[in-house]
Amino acid sequence: MIEKYSVIALYFTVLLVLGSFAARGVRDMKGFVIGGKSLSFWVAAFSAQATGESAWLLLGVTGMGAMLGFSAYWIVVGEVVGVFFAWFVMGKRYKRLTDLYSSITMTDFLVSRFQSKTTILRLLSAISLIIFVLIYISAQIDATGSAFEAFLGWNYHQGALVGFGIVVLYCVAGGFLAAAWTDMFQGAVMLGCLVVLPVVAWLAIGNSAEIISGLSAIDPALVSVWGGEFNLINASVVLGMMLIGLGFVGSPQVFARLLAVRSETEIDRGKWVALLFTFLVDASAVSIGVLGRYLFTEQGVDPESVLGNGAQNVMSELVHVSFPPWIVGLYVAAVLSAIMSTVSSLLVMAAGAVTHDLYAKLVNPSISDAFAARLCRYSTLAIAIGAMALATLVSVIAPERTIFWFAIFGWSGIAATFCPMVILALFW
After folding, report:
1. What percentage of residues in the chain have a pLDDT greater than 70?
2. What pTM was estimated for this model as a whole?
3. Lesser CB count within 10 Å: N end or C end of the chain?
4. Alpha helix locations (H) across 85-155?
């Protein structure tokens, strides 16, 4: 057990060191909210995609791969298409316009682009963002507790509190830069761990035909790309999984990275990194679930009785049978990376909505830089505490929840609110 905790302690140390370095550059609201528009393409691409994936990928999508089999690969298709449109079609235009309007938040951009003469658009945008971000963060905190419980046998609430405490520390200190730099590190951890695990498991089995025949014996629907026979219901499910990728086409947490890069040239470089990263991590996550279903279940056995609610423990089960304890610790770090990269970005974004979009723009336009930076930190802490309370409440009143659907609710709320507006703002 000491090997696991040593790796996790090292991981937390790196996060806190990066946060402390980032804190040195935060002296005003612009520094806290967008890091002074100084991101390189590597940091922007890894940060955007790590933020967009979250624990939903490592626990939810792996579980969905175990539950649905091959049809879950449609999630990969949808996400790759969504990332393609975000980076290849919308990215440079968004960067150009936000620079033109001197925007530091998406609400700023929308108000300037639509030439709003009242405060209604700003209020609706900022308040909607805060509400759905609160839900999305609470889903990640919930996943933190589940991850510690599955990998280390901790009490759910203890795990949620520890992960929550670490991410709040470096976010309150370093703001957007801390989120972006730690996202770069955490994205690399996620990528490496996700790609390696299904390769190791597949090599241990050594026969693709055996996997397919084994899955078919468990349930023939597992090896069908339509989840069984082609009919309207199954086609609708496939379409629904593909449309998850629409959340990338205008979501504030992803587009904050496009706004914060140094130049449009960085977007040209970063788009290929973002696309490849998305394909590799998504395809690997579904593959982990599919392989876990083959290894840990058999015909007539309910996968949730073996792999947990929504089969979201499939990754931890596969890691424990594939690797020694110190590498198990690395996979705990990978799951926490997915969670914390999202939580940190959302916390900073919500704090920017409170401080810049509401207070500075509507209450006190002459706010000083020093006070603005302090208020951003106070807002970050308040939103984090609210999310922790909501996650605890949900864990009590909805014990049968799954991380996949809990996270999708927050993600979909943000996407449905902002994506149509951003598309129209860029191309109308």
Report:
1. 93
2. 0.86
3. C
4. 91-100, 106-113, 120-152
